[in-house]
Amino acid sequence: MSEDDKTTNKAKGFARGLTNYGDRDFSLYLRRSFASSMGYSRQMLDRPVVGIAHSASGFNNCHRHFPEMIEAVKRGVLAAGALPVEFPTISLGEVFLSPTSLKFRNLMSMDVEEMIRAQPMDSVVLLGGCDKTVPAQLMGAASAGLPAIQLVAGPMSTSRHRGERLGACTDCRRFWQRYRAGDVDDQGIDAVEKRLASTSGTCAVMGTASTMASLAEAIGMMPAGSAAIPAVDADRLRMAEETGRIAASLIGSDKTPQKIMTEKALENGLRILMAIGGSTNAIIHLAAIAGRVGLTIDLKRMNEISDTTPVLVDLKPTGTAYMEDLHAAGGIPAVMRELKHLLHLDCQTITGETIGDRIEAADPWVDRNVVRPIDAPVRDNGGLLAVFGNMAPRGAIIKRSAADPNLFEKTGRAVVFTSLEDLAARIDEPDLDVTVDDFLVLQNAGPLSDAAMPEAGYIPIPAKLARAGVKDMVRMSDARMSGTAYGTIVLHVAPDAASGGPIGLIRNGDRIELSVKNHSIRLLVSEEELERRRAERPTETRSARRGYDMLYRDHVLQADEGCDFDFLRSAPI
Ligand code: FES
User: Fold this and answer.
1) Disulfide: which of 1, 141, 228, 272 matches 148 by Cβ 3.0-4.6 Å?
2) Do 209 and 336 fall into the same domain?
3) Where would you find the membrane-spanning parts of this chain (predicted)?
């Protein structure tokens, strides 16, 4: 290798990015020597390297089949003449993290970015799946600026309970609600607990993981048709092998994530988000990803897209089918074909075709029970909407496809819970002053709170109302909600209470007006009174003292900016 190659990025494989010992030839000799201890031949060591950034962990059930998938990726890389080298990064197992996985998404993105940059690789496969892992990988890879391709775990398969089909996690919530209402006994809920998540893979419905997988495909960072292949299907392994082959073909190309995730591509992502009735969390993740390539997600533009995009996919939590059914029905290509006239067809994808090419190449067969035609949609407009007003100057999100339209135009009395602890302590109190017409308000659960914006926006119906048969009522918070949840729920209120947002000024008995038609949410309290309450607010209440807690507290942004860290939001240089 020439001196020139050594000092520029033309160096390939293990010769790339040498450890600095002050003598480059010594560094290369030492690296090869240590790599040889892993049993590689010199012929292998001279190959360019495809890194496989994977997030397998004993604390991540969704990724338990990753060893098998990694082997398949390696086959594809080797067949294409490169050397596959896997490396672990932080894994975010959704239900194993406290206080919430979102808090650690940025940490994982930093891990992914820095390990791609610091280790010798020429392109990278990003292997993730569980909710926050795919956005973390896309954010990190976007910042690292190396050619990258996403590969996902694929969805879990459904199981059965007394003849009823079950899949995590919409059915988790449905059964829990029935248990709380007394319709399911202790024995019944124990049996369901064992059957809700019975294979590897990500949650079986259109939750956040499935939504982000669908969006990764729609914006062009994954091969066509790859989002919905079940985790346990042999096609998933074939897709892993193919992804390895493509990753090897990316070596030396300029197909960095920034080239694929353009403004138009992200807009395609928003269209698909609406058409699949996707998770509210995806808006936060898209905003964070956009920020990494120097773009923003404008919530007003999102509303325009939502108002002109029908929901076409009939999946839980808003419909009836599961992700495995979407795969069998034609997958994301079938959805994109219906929306052809609304998409930017000239967007390039990581596999070399344009989005238009992919649509042309897709199998024309489609199961209309799962993917509806554009002229007979599940609903006429998109599932998600941003609402604005004096209660949410920077916006809030409602998943109208999962909400009760009878509650869309309503004024209600606020029943306020000042924290998650307050909510847990009082929501089921028999003497709680609450009626079905009230609005439940949860404060101090936003990104800047100690709670770090958990999926607690799905505020339970107070026990006394649940027992009386109430299934839904208006609920609002600065928290998030699981993509698998449903109800008339206003989320991501920004700015949040902990940063001084108006949601923190609401008091019991205040009147709040929600209008989905006008995209508005208003606190019907005079500005003078709000000013008085603002002056009474205690100053800093958060408790971070050291380490990542402190980094998070000092740098996390609001929901409309994707809850990324301020210092990470810029295009790669
Ligand atoms: Fe991993 Fe739902 S718990 S995707």
Assistant:
1) 141
2) yes
3) none
Whether 186 and 238 map to the same domain: the answer is no
Structural domain of 230: 47-157+199-361
Using alpha carbons only, give the angle 15, 18, 20 rounded to the nearest 5 degrees. 155
Domain count for the chain = 3
pLDDT for res 5: 52
Q: Whose CA is nearest to atom 2 of ligand 1?
A: 203
In whole angstroms, give the CA distance from residue 552 to residue 447. Answer: 9
Q: Cα(131) to centroid of ligand 1, in Å?
A: 6
Per-residue pLDDT band for 21 (boundaries 50, 70, 90) equals very high
What does the alpha-carbon distance between residue 527 and residue 262 come to, in Å, rounded to a whole number?
41
- Expressed in angstroms and rounded, the spacing between residue 454 Cα and the centre of ligand 1 is 14
Question: Can you give the CATH number for the domain in which 283 is found?
Answer: 3.40.50.2300
Count the helix, strand and coil residues of the chain and give each as a percent rounded to the nearest 5. 40, 15, 45
User: Could you tell me if residue 532 is inside a domain?
Assistant: yes
- Ligand 1 neighbours, Cβ below 6 Å, are 62, 94-95, 130-131, 169, 202-203, 207, 209
CB-CB contact of 22 with 97 (8 Å):
no
At 115-155, the pLDDT tens digits run: 999 999 999 999 999 999 999 999 999 999 999 999 999 99
| For residue 12, pLDDT beyond 70 | yes
Locate the ligand 1 atom nearest the alpha carbon of residue 168 and give its number. 2
Q: State pLDDT tens for residues 299-355.
A: 999 999 999 999 999 999 889 999 999 999 999 999 999 999 999 999 999 999 999
Q: 332 and 217, same structural domain?
A: yes
Ligand 1 mutation pick, 131, 156, 196, 482, max ligand atoms within 8 A of CB: 131
pLDDT of residue 538: 78
Q: 227-283 pLDDT, tens per residue? A: 999 999 999 999 999 999 999 999 999 999 999 999 999 999 999 999 999 999 999
The verdict on residue 376 lying in a domain is no
Q: Which residue has the tokens 């395609």?
A: 268
Q: Give yes or no: residues 281 and 179 share one domain.
A: no
Contact 123, 250 (CB under 8 A): yes
- Does residue 110 fall inside a structural domain? yes
Do residues 408 and 348 both lie within one domain? Answer: no
